[in-house]
Each structure stands twice: as structure tokens, then as C-alpha cells.
Amino acid sequence: MHDGMKCQRTKIRLAVYIVLTLGLLLVALFGESIAPYDPYKTNVMAIDQPPSYDYWFGTDNLGRCLFSRVLTGARSSLSATLLIVAITGVLGTLIGVAAGYYGGIVDNILKRLLLIFQSFPGQVLAIAIVGVLGAGFGNAVIALGVIGWISYARIARSMVLKIRNAGYVNAARLCGCGSAYIMIHHVIPNISSLLFVTAMNALAGTMLEISALSFLGLSATPPIPEWGFMISEGRKVLMTAPWQTLFPGIAILITVIILNRLGDSVQDYMAVRQQELSVM
Q: Do 21 and 258 meet the contact criterion of CB atoms below 8 Å apart?
């Protein structure tokens, strides 16, 4: 009875955060369309206006509507987050699976790469890479992709080492299946749930990382509205117009909380689901 109630609460909590995440994605897709003003249009007559009936979040130093820019900025912030998680997840999984399955020199190369990348603080390495490549959205994605694949590769490698000699894998080899076929159709599906949980848990951290790069001026470039960059612009007038920093910061906070709780809910659901399957 108690386990049934726990499972039900887990499912409800997961459904709630899925709905909230879908809400964020809808804002990202249609934010610019529902924005009351053009987020790029300047207005010298409305510079640094506080929140009001006309401008709910106030205006910035160029007279642009902050509410419209926050809505529009959801697209760049969330798209960058999802793109980075997708790229790092796929890349890290493929590298980890190949290293764990083949072993030998391939595995040794991966272990050396992991040691090299883990010897540097991730955010510092990302800043250095963007500094070399130049500021820009694409270069920020590359920089965070370079440091983000490590966790997926490590998890995939350790899981594959446990199952590469399992009965169903050996049976596939005896049937004449090639290594690529076995990895795609037998190995990856059996470790996908753990990697999916890892990706869900990485969403919130990735959002903070891309916002940090934007705050430093290394990701989004003017006039693109991006929450981290908007905070960076607003800090120049923090004492006289704090709303320019406050509202983009709140947008990041709410998004990170939702994504973080989504990751926790997915992890809890997977654990409960695993218990149900073990009982059956």
C-alpha cells in the first residue's frame, strides 16, 4: 500500500514538472509572437523606465521592453541548453560505448582523454575555448560540448563493461551480428535509461553554464536577447534600475528550478519503475 502511494506521488510529481517544462518550451517557441512590443526596437523616450502598466518589467538603457525581451530570450537560452545536452549526450554515449565494448587501445585512449579533461575546471576550460574561438552562440555550444560529454562517456563505458559479455550480447555475436549492430540494437538500449536520467539532470546545470558565458559576453551578442547577457547589461545600472537585472535573473531561477526538479522527478520515477519490474 505504501509503495503504491509512493509510486502514485512520483508519477504525479513527474507529470507536474513535465507540464511546466512544456510551458517553458511553448514560451521559447512563441515568446516573440506573444510579446507586447518588438524586443529589438529602441525608444529614446522610454529609456530606463521602471515597471508600469505599459511596461510590466520596465525598459532597458535603450528603451526596449524588458518583458518582451525576457519572453524572446527564452528561445535562445532554452535552445542552447537543449542543443548542448543533446550533442554532449550523443557524443559521450557513442565514445563511452565504443571504449567499453572494444576495450584495449580504444579504452586506453578514452581513459587518457578523461584524465586530461578532468584535470581542468570545466567552466574555466569552456571560457578558454570560447576565448580562443571568439564570442558567439555557436562557439559557446562547442565549448560546453567539449566539457559536457565526459560524464556520459564515463557512465556509458562503465555500464558497457558490465554487459559486453552478457548472454544476449554473446548470442548476437554467434548469430553473426556486427559490432555496430550489437552496440546500436543491444547495448545502447540496455543503458539508455541511466543515460536519459543523466541528461535530464544535466539540463539545469547547462542552463547556468550558458547563462554564465553570456554574462561574460562570450555567448550571445547584441541585440539578441539572452537572459545571462541581459543581466550583464543590467548590472551597469544596478543601483538606479535594478529591474533590468532582477527580471532576467528571476527567469533563469524559475527555469533552473523547473529543470532541476524535472531531472529529480525522472530519476525518482526510473527508480520506482525499476523496483516494480524487479518485483514482477
A: yes
State the pTM of this model.
0.86
Query: 70-101 in b/e burial notation, b at 16+ Cβ within 10 A?
Result: bbbbbbbbbbbbbbbbebbbebbbbbbbbbbb
- pLDDT tens digits, 70-109: 999 888 888 888 889 999 999 988 888 888 888 778 778 8
Q: What is the CATH number of the domain that holds 14?
A: 1.10.3720.10
Task: Round to whole Å and give the CA distance between 20 and 80.
Answer: 19
Instruction: Give the model confidence (pLDDT) of 24-34 as tens digits.
Output: 999 989 888 88
Q: Is residue 19 part of a domain?
A: yes
Name the domain count of the chain: 1
**278 has a pLDDT exceeding 70:** no
Q: What is the domain range of residue 202?
A: 2-43+56-279
Alpha helices in the chain, H assignment, sequence order: 2-34, 66-102, 104-118, 122-133, 137-163, 167-174, 179-182, 188-215, 227-234, 243-279
* 48 domain residue, yes or no: no
**DSSP secondary structure letter of residue 223:** T
225 closest CA partner among 84, 78, 24, 85: 78
